[in-house]
Amino acid sequence: MDRIIRISDFGASELDVYARLNEAQLLHYYEPAEGLFIAESPKVIERALAAGYKPVSFLMEEKHINGEGADILAQCPNVPVYTAAFDILTKLTGFALTRGMLAAMQRRPLPTQEEICAAARRIAILEDVVNPTNVGALIRCAAALNIDAVLLTPACANPLYRRSLRVSMGCAFQIPWTFIDKKEDGGIDFSHLHKLGFQTAAMALDDRAISIDNPILSDIDKLAIVLGTEGDGLAKFTISNCDYTVRIPMAHGVDSLNVAAAGAVAFWQLG
């Protein structure tokens, strides 16, 4: 049977994952097993395949079958490919597929924080960063700027959400990450990291904070850089549980940076 399936019925259930299911529904698609995510663009799909993720189906413009998508399809000979002309696909998805190719892929069980931090020297911890764009940007910065792993609290946007992946350019497949629980007081439990030899640095606006260029920070062998949610920043319990509170010096009366920008500065300076 020809695996190239040209779209004629916009209501086909096989297309729900692309057109009608939200991120939460994709996340729980195979519950209790792991769910699905949507990888967008050939570059992101290639990085997902290289990391061992398995595609369930592809959705792409016809011109990409023998074009940008040809190498990817050759790696996945038994995976169905849904296709149509560009103007038809925009009607199906509700927006222009400017990158021309999507893949529905199976999620995998997440590693433990001990597994991804055991050999790490610099890690990032994201507390309640709810915006998928910011999570994607932070993942990309972490991968680029010598961070070995990323830990996220449950309220964070998932790094495999479509927008997060798009912004990270697939870097969520190049740096290990996982979710961690929070304590009853609302702060982060650092006991596992302390057992692994990590010290913790909370990035926060606090008059008692030390400057990010303080030499004491660069001399720390294992350091976890902790960044908080948009607007409110880190929970007070998290700050009090950290070994250091650190701030980025500001000029021209600017009080703070967007969390993704602050993360890039912190990763460059401390990574």
Task: Please tell me about this protein's structure.
By secondary structure, the protein is an alpha/beta fold. It contains 12 helices and 12 strands. The strands form 2 sheets. Strands 8-7-6-11-9-12-10 form a 7-stranded parallel β-sheet. Strands 1-4-3-5-2 form a 5-stranded mixed β-sheet. Strand 3, helix 4 and strand 4 form a beta-alpha-beta unit.
Which tags fit this structure?
seven-stranded parallel β-sheet; 12 helices; five-stranded mixed β-sheet; 12 strands
Give a quick precis of the structure:
With 271 residues, this protein is of the alpha/beta class. Helix content is 31%, strand content 20%.
pLDDT averaged over residues: 90
Number-wise, the strands total 12
Radius of gyration from CA coordinates: 21 Å
Shape verdict: elongated
Instruction: Point out poorly predicted stretches.
Output: none
Helix-and-strand structural type: alpha/beta
Output the strand order for the largest sheet: 8-7-6-11-9-12-10
Q: Number of DSSP helices?
A: 12
This entry's quaternary arrangement is single chain
Largest sheet: 7 strands, parallel
Which series of helices and strands comes N to C?
EHHEHEHEHEHEHEHEHEEHEHEH
Instruction: Determine the strand fraction and express it as a percent band.
Output: 15-25%
Kindly, what is the distance between the CA atoms of the first and last residues, rounded to a whole number of angstroms?
52 Å
Helix content: 25-40%
